[in-house]
Amino acid sequence: MTDQEKLDPRIHPFRDDLAASYLRGRVTAARFIDGVPCQINSGFTALKEKPSFEARQSTELLLGEGFTVLDEHDGWAWGQNETDGYVGWLRVEALEAGLTEATHKVTALRTFLQPEADLKLPFLDLLPMGACVVVTGNQGDWCQVESGGWVHARHLAPVDDYASDFVAVAERFVGTPYLWGGRTSIGIDCSGLVQLALLAAGVDCPRDSDQQAASVGALISADGVGVEYRRGDLVFFPGHVGIMKDATTLLHANAFHMAVVAEPLADVVARAGAKGINAVKRPG
Fold this sequence. Notes:
By secondary structure, the chain is mainly beta. The chain has five helices and 25 strands.
């Protein structure tokens, strides 16, 4: 197997006609470019597998996240997300050129961006947990953000203020609808829930469940047999992941309930049948 064949295309931007410069010597492409650093300028936006509104959503990018643009086509930009390396297409209007260093992040499940420091005015945008902003001023309980608009101060925290319990972060999403590729309280998938919760606690985490199984935490068991589960253990199934709320309860976004739920792990294992637990990891 060649080096190129070993590279995961989800997190390595290369095509026959184009690739990122840092992949020179590892992949074959007609040309290599550095790309243009940009960032997301709206509350959240879909990253697509193809440059089409009808294409499947791979993931979502949040306000303030960096994105390196390598190609543009008919109003779509192809590139790589700075947070987790995910590669895909998004609408060019969701981007602004350059990168700014955020001062604050949204810690509420979601909040409104208001045109003025006035909760009675129509809102400009909906900002999800994890969205990042640059605060430039204050007026009472409101923070003015550099990109324009105001956010209530109780819904923000400094970017280096991390949650002490990532499970408690995940618990706040109970009831959120299941959405393939979702990373917000509007809709979220299993690995998106794990990623958001861990990032809120300052723990780096890749996007997809197989990537998380390979890189997050210490392996406790390859099949879950005989495990004395602890709060915060990550339980992996083929194509799925959940978080142990306690010794017997799994917290997870799933397509059976079409929502984030907390339920007995034994029930999840019973539904999985032959596709049972294939890893239990314990974040440090």
